[in-house]
Amino acid sequence: MEKRRRHRWVATLPALLALAACGPAPSSPEPGPPAAHAATATVPVCRPEQVTLRVQYAGGEMSQPFLDVAIRNRGDRSCLLRGYPTVRARGRSGSSGGSTPRDLAVHHGLYERPDPGPARVVLRPGGSAVFSIGTATAYDGGQHLTLTRLSVALPWSAAPLALRVQLPATRPVGRPVPLGITAIAAPRHLGGR
After folding, report:
1. Pure H helices in the chain
2. Is 171 part of any domain?
3. What is the rounded CA–CA span in Å between residue 90 and residue 67?
4. What is the helix (H) or strand (E) element at residue 107, kind and residue range?
5. With contact defined as beta carbons under 8 Å apart, do 107 and 182 qualify?
6. pLDDT value at position 189?
7. 3-state DSSP call for residue 49?
8. 29-41 core/surface letters (b: 16 or more CB in 10 A; e: else)
9. Is residue 193 in some structural domain?
């Protein structure tokens, strides 16, 4: 019995040494700007002062309004985007004129637009990318409101860009406004599904 155990251990030893020589197993990349990684070092991350935002399309299906937001590179060099923007919102209730900050419950994906997930998108000068945001308006007993202004921070940036919008929403009783968002992607055919 002792001999068999030793024999298995000796037989396994070359395989373990070969694996150890290969180095540690690859791990997931650390979150952070892709410029820190060799494969993307030639294309810098898009900076807020280099891009503009605008609502490219507004629509809705099944009581779920949404917006497609275009990010345009107005700089003279290509830049890189990857991931999900961070969004904060202001809005007004009913017909009141004042706009106040709104708590959001952000989740990835929305009914009307597939979420491609994070992918590398290179914006050439004058080029654009798109992401979508959406709400819901059919919560029973919820507070109806209109989101009127978004503060959008690009991935790897804390500096927000302002975007004026008219996006109906309903806040469920005692909860924040649900807001779906897709990852930034290459432009796609817009309108309908």
Report:
1. 2-21
2. yes
3. 16
4. strand 104-108
5. no
6. 54
7. helix
8. eeeeebeeeeebe
9. no
Answer yes or no: is 26 within a domain. Answer: no
**Torsion angle of the four alpha carbons 76, 34, 157, 110, in this order, in degrees rounded to the nearest 10:** 100
Q: What is the reported pLDDT for 41? A: 59
DSSP letter (8 states) at residue 31:
S
Give every residue of the chain whose pLDDT is below 50, as ranges.
1-31, 33-40, 192-193
pLDDT of residue 190: 52
Range of the domain at 93: 44-181
16-62 pLDDT tens trace: 333 333 333 332 333 454 444 444 458 999 999 999 999 999 999 88
Into how many domains does the chain fold? 1
Nearest one of 107, 88, 110, 85 to 99, comparing CA atoms: 88
Q: Cα–Cα distances in Å, from 41 out to 33, 80, 120, 157, 175?
A: 10, 10, 13, 17, 42
Measured distance CA(186)–CA(106) in Å, rounded: 22
Residue 73 domain-assigned (yes or no): yes
Q: What are 18's two structure tokens?
A: 């070969």
- Whole-prediction pTM: 0.75
